[in-house]
From TrEMBL:
Annotated keywords: Oxidoreductase
Pfam family, one: adh_short
Species of origin: Rhizobium brockwellii
InterPro entries, per database record: NAD(P)-bd_dom_sf, Sc_DH/Rdtase_CS, SDR_fam
Organism lineage string: Bacteria, Pseudomonadati, Pseudomonadota, Alphaproteobacteria, Hyphomicrobiales
The protein's name: SDR family NAD(P)-dependent oxidoreductase
PANTHER family: ALCOHOL DEHYDROGENASE (PTHR42901:SF1)
Family statement: Belongs to the short-chain dehydrogenases/reductases (SDR) family.
Annotated PROSITE patterns: ADH_SHORT
Keyword Oxidoreductase in annotation: yes
Amino acid sequence: MGSAQQKPGLAVVTGASSGIGLELAKIAASKGYDLIIAADEEEINDAAAELRRMGANVDAIVTDLSTIEGVDRLAEGIEADGRSVDLLLANAGRGLGKGFLDQDFAEARRVIDTNVVGTVYLIQQIGNQMRARGSGKILITGSIAGFIPGSYQAVYNGSKAFLNSFSFALRNELQDTGVTVTCLMPGPTETRFFERADMLDTDVGQAEKDDPADVANVGFDAMMDGEGDVVAGWKNKFQAAMANVTPASMLAAKHAKMAAPGTAKN
């Protein structure tokens, strides 16, 4: 106990098995944070091994973050660590393509439960601990999809609209507490998202996408600076700006041309 060396802070990253979440975890590791990472698939253990090779102390938790029980399992793992969470990167998310009436409702509900219910439940638990001690940073992965009525991704875009709005409201509520909330709003990113959402046969599924490492860097920097929101990529900034002045019916029709099944350009 005589060492004056301060232990690194603790960062919690959800949805960290691949994509933006894994890249966020890598940045946290490179900056000396210890990590607790979580996802609903065994690949989270591969991610943990990669992060340990970077020299990070990592605990990996396989848990279904679309359920209250799954989030509780993560919370128990955090509590067992015995330290306060300095950074909460609430990145876990799920997509689903095709027309809403053609979707399996259990899959559609899982999108809502993962993106919305599990996310806000975790944030309330960790956020209360942060507020009680007067410090902490929260990064929520929203999306520019939240600005656009998402024909053939209706539930996903709706869930991201919720997260975008929720993050701004929570940030305002916490403005004098020492806790900051940042919303990262990427556009289409080169991850397994479109494969998992069964959207590889769509125009947007086949189009060139942003690098998840670049997106993660933009989001992490914004969080550390305490910014309220950040849109990654100039094309996405332009699209977000246009969405604010374009009628919703036109946005929905445009989205349909990108996301409808079978629209992929060969």
